[in-house]
Amino acid sequence: MSRVEKANSKCRNIGARPKPTPATATPADFFDRWLSIKMTDIGKHVLLICSENLDSKNDAIKELRDVVRSHYVDPEITAKRIAELGAPKTAELLKEHLPLRKQARSGDLGEILATELTERKLGFDVPVRRLRLKDGRDMALRGDDIVAIARDPNGRLKFLKGESKSRARLTSSVLKEASDALDKNDGRPTRHTVLFVAERLRERGEEKLALDLEKALVHSFRKNSINHLLFTVSSNNPNKPLHEHLSKCSNKTRRHAIGVCINDHGEFIKHLFSEL
Asked: 170 with 262: CB under 8 angstroms?
C-alpha cells in the first residue's frame, strides 16, 4: 500500500489528526509539488488559484492515481483484495467503479480534488468519501458535493458546504450554477446529505461525531457556523472569473473559491483514468 493510501486509510474522525492549512501544509505533500497556490483575501471571502508546476506533473499524476483509487474503494479493502485475490483481479474489480463517460469522469475528478484540497488547505475534514457509495459508475450522487466539518474553539461544529464544477472552460454561467446551488436552503447544507453522513458515521462506530451532526440537524444549524466552497477545475485561467465572482458576492456566508487550472483538461483526465 502506498504512502497516500495509508494516510487515507486512517480514521477520518475530526480531531484524529491535524489539518494542514496554507501556512502549515507540508512541502512533502505532492499537491504542493504539483500545484502552485496563490491565496487572496477578497473582503471576507478567500480566493485560492492553483496552477500546475509542469516539471512535477508526471510524478504528481502517479501519486494522484493512488488518491483517486482511494476515493472509489477504501484502501483497507484494496489491501485485503490484493492479499486474497492478487493485484490483477483487484484492478479488475476497481474498474467496476470507474465511470466510462467523459463527463462523469470530469465530475468525479472535480469532487476528488475539491475534497483533497478542502482537507489539505482549508482545515476542514470531509468524513465520508461519497464516490465509494455510488450505485452506478456514471451516475451523479444527489445532494451537496462536499460536506466538510471542523470545530470552533468552543468545540462546536463548523460546516463547509461545497459545490464542485469541472469544465473544459470556466464560464460565468457555470459559476452561477454553482453559486445558486450553494445559496439553496438558505445557504445551509442539505439536511438529507448531513443525515446521510451521520448514518455512515454511525455504521463506522463514530458515534460522537454522528450525534453532533444529528444535533445540528435538530436545531436547523442555528448553533453552527457555515462556510461555502465554490471549487472549479478548468483549462482556462480561473483567476479573473472567480475574483469577479467573489467581489460581487454579497451574502453573509464566508465563501472560499478554489480554482485549479489544468491546461490540457480533457487529455489530463483521459490519461489519469487510463491507468487506474
From this structure: no
